[in-house]
Design goal:
- 54% of the residues lie in helices and 14% in strands.
- The chain is of the alpha+beta class and 280 residues long.
- It folds into three domains: 6-45, Ribbon (Pemi-like Protein 1, Chain: D); 54-116, Translation Initiation Factor IF3; 125-271, no CATH class.
- The strands form three sheets. The protein has a four-stranded mixed β-sheet with strand order 5-6-8-7, with helices on one face. A two-stranded antiparallel ribbon has the order 1-2. A two-stranded antiparallel sheet has the order 3-4.
- The two termini are 32 Å apart.
């Protein structure tokens, strides 16, 4: 079915939807539909969903780290129900606490069932990754608060853990509901935000009362996130170069701060592209 694009306003183009389809779906003016990018195609649907998937894994004898990595992998793959046979009930319970959007539906000494609570997500990926950016900024500003003696290391750990949980959900969402031509860019962006959060947590252990350094880190993170979603590669490039020159080189904390700049600097030409929507 072919439809013509109609100009509306200065830059917008609109397309009409078939009346029979609207009637069959019970849609009226003011309702929402979802647009899903699939490489060169654009699909319109009334609900952002995907086929429900169930997987069963046997982790009997697995250590804590292996248990965690296998379950997180199944979570990111987008399974709605994860059935685990095991001999580590405490580990299974701990891992369940890190699966945002899922609950432990069944739990015993030898079997745990994680089930998704989300049938249709309310957010889109751009909104989710922006929220991750804001969480990273909040974490960086808490570093400065810590240096001033007004926050604790537990506060930093809690915020960094929340960022990690959210980024895991971003990866799950990207894998389950999105199908973009440059999806790898988004995976790399999530990995960069996670690494930045890890750097800040490590910095918190040794920043002491160096408020100047903590403020420098907070400023670069806030600027990075702003320029990321503005899609301004040139200003991000020059800003990160200036940051690296501004970081002292006298202490271990200074080295961590410089390493943070390197993490943000890597791949910026690939991460900052047309697929990162600018603010409007």
């Amino acid at each position: 079915m072919e439809r013509k694009l109609v100009k509306q306003g200065r830059n917008a183009l609109t397309v009409t939807l078939p009346a029979a389809w609207l009637k069959a779906k019970g849609l009226v003016a003011g309702n929402s539909v979802y647009l899903i990018e699939r490489n060169s195609e654009l699909a319109i649907t009334t609900a952002l969903s995907s086929p429900r998937k169930t997987v069963t894994v046997d982790l009997t004898g697995a250590d804590r780290s292996m248990f965690f990595h296998v379950i997180i992998a199944k979570y990111i793959e987008g399974h709605d129900t994860i059935i685990v046979n095991h001999d580590a009930p405490k580990v299974a319970q701990d891992v369940g606490a890190e699966l945002m959007g899922m609950v432990i539906e069944e739990h015993s000494r030898t079997r745990t069932v994680y089930r998704s609570m989300i049938a249709v997500p309310e957010d889109n990926f751009d909104a989710l990754v922006r929220r991750a950016g804001h969480l990273l900024v909040q974490l960086a500003r808490s570093l400065e608060t810590l240096a001033k003696g007004k926050a604790s290391m537990d506060d930093i750990r809690t915020e960094e853990r929340l960022l990690d949980y959210h980024l895991l959900f971003c990866l799950r969402f990207l894998n389950k509901y999105e199908n973009r031509e440059h999806a790898y860019r988004y995976f790399l962006l999530c990995a960069t935000l996670e690494q930045a959060g890890d750097h800040i947590k490590q910095l918190a252990k040794c920043v002491g009362r160096d408020v100047t350094l903590a403020r420098l880190v907070g400023d670069i993170i806030e600027r990075y996130v702003y320029l990321l979603f503005a899609g301004d590669l040139h200003r991000m490039y020059t800003t990160l170069r200036e940051y690296r020159k501004a970081v002292p080189t006298r202490t271990f904390a200074h080295g961590l701060a410089y390493s943070l700049g390197e993490t943000l600097y890597n791949y910026i030409g690939f991460i900052v592209g047309n697929d990162v929507s600018p603010d409007t």
